[in-house]
Write a structure and sequence with these properties.
This protein has 207 residues and is an alpha+beta fold. It is built from five helices and twelve strands. A ten-stranded antiparallel β-sheet has the order 6-5-4-3-7-8-9-10-11-12, covered by helices on one side. Helix 4 (185-193) runs antiparallel to helix 5 (196-205). It is elongated and about 60 Å long.
Length: 207
């Protein structure tokens, strides 16, 4: 079948638009990493397509962020600590609102190098900026879990990491199966059932 030349551009445009909409609706985020080479450091973006069911809290209404003590490091290396909350109303554009004595300042993830919540017990919950949200490491182990809120635990988990040096990847069946060892059938059974967090916790218990 041949396609009329005049029809090619509309068709190509439609396919690109459809592809972009699919990724955007699933919650695509990118994280900038640095590759160390003999010729210097090379920055690159690692893209995560967060499945809709994870990014939308598996059908639950999205929670509001509490006000916490945050340490914010901006792109220009300016550092400050303040009580703040994360605005998560817009799923694709999270922001942090800092209330000063005379004005309010809003920061987006792209304007920061890192955001860390400091709990009352002094525990640090580091946040990695993506292009649309911060990913906070809220559960640590052989597999680390990242959430879009700075809440310890796995309730808001959307991404995972194999160890401390592995790339941060979306919490999906495929990504989990690539990480876990094949000599633990119970872990694989949980993953196949869709019980990802239970599988991660069981895997992390193994020495």
């Amino acid at each position: 079948m041949t396609i009329n030349t005049k029809m090619r551009f509309p068709i190509i445009f439609f396919l690109l638009l459809t592809s972009a909409y699919t990724c955007f609706s699933q919650g695509m985020v990118s994280i900038q990493h640095t590759m160390h080479t003999p010729h210097g450091n090379v920055p690159y973006d690692n893209y995560l397509v967060i499945p809709d069911n994870n990014f939308n809290m598996r059908g639950k209404s999205r929670p509001n962020s509490m006000t916490y003590d945050f340490r914010v490091v901006l792109k220009n290396d300016s550092t400050f600590s303040s009580k703040a909350k994360i605005n998560v109303k817009d799923i694709k554009h999270h922001t942090i609102l800092i209330k000063g004595k005379k004005e309010k300042i809003t920061f987006s993830p792209s304007e920061t190098k890192s955001v860390t919540r400091i709990t009352m017990e002094g525990v640090k919950i580091p946040g990695v900026p993506t292009d649309s949200c911060w990913l906070f490491r809220t559960y640590t182990g052989k597999i680390n879990v990242y959430s879009f809120l700075a809440e310890l635990g796995t309730e808001y988990a959307i991404a995972i990491q194999d160890g401390v040096d592995g790339p941060i990847r979306a919490l999906t069946k495929e990504n989990l199966l690539e990480i876990v060892e094949y000599d633990n059938p119970k872990v694989h059974e949980l993953i196949e059932e869709g019980s990802f967090i239970e599988a991660i916790k069981l895997y992390n218990k193994k020495k």
